[in-house]
Write a structure and sequence with these properties.
single chain, about 120 residues, mainly alpha, Histone, subunit A, about 0% strand
C-alpha cells in the first residue's frame, strides 16, 4: 500500500484486490493461449509481455494525442464568448447598477438557507 494515502473508503481495498486478481487471471489465461500457439511447455516472459500489451490495449483508455487536443482547443478558443446581457436584479426587478454583470443570488434562492 502507498504510505502517503491516509484516508480512503472501506471498499477501496476490496475493489483493488478484486481488480488485481481479475486482471492477473485474465492476463495469465491470455498468456496460456500464446504459449499454446507457440507450442511451448511453460509460460515465459515473452508470453506474459504479449498478454499484458494486448490486455492493456483493450482494457485501458489511452489519452488522445496531444496534436488532437491542441486542434480541439484551437477550434474552441476561436469561438467568441457570448456577451453578458444587462440583467435585472432579482430583488428589485430594476436594471443592475453595473451593466454587463450577473446579479448575486437573494437569500431566498441560496442553498444554505433552511427550506422548512
Amino acid at each position: 500500500m502507498i504510505a502517503d494515502i491516509e484516508l480512503y473508503e472501506k471498499n477501496v481495498i476490496n475493489q483493488l484486490i478484486e481488480f488485481i486478481s481479475y486482471y492477473i487471471g485474465e492476463t495469465i489465461q491470455e498468456a496460456k493461449v500464446y504459449r499454446d500457439l507457440a507450442s511451448k511447455p511453460k509460460i515465459d516472459v515473452a508470453d506474459m509481455r504479449l498478454a499484458i500489451s494486448c490486455k492493456s490495449y483493450d482494457s485501458f483508455v489511452r489519452p488522445a494525442p496531444l496534436s488532437t487536443i491542441r486542434n480541439i482547443a484551437r477550434q474552441k478558443n476561436q469561438m467568441p464568448i457570448p456577451a453578458i446581457e444587462n440583467l435585472t436584479s432579482e430583488e428589485t426587478g430594476k436594471p443592475n447598477q453595473h451593466p454587463n454583470t450577473i446579479p448575486s443570488s437573494t437569500e431566498a434562492t441560496t442553498l444554505i438557507n433552511p427550506n422548512l
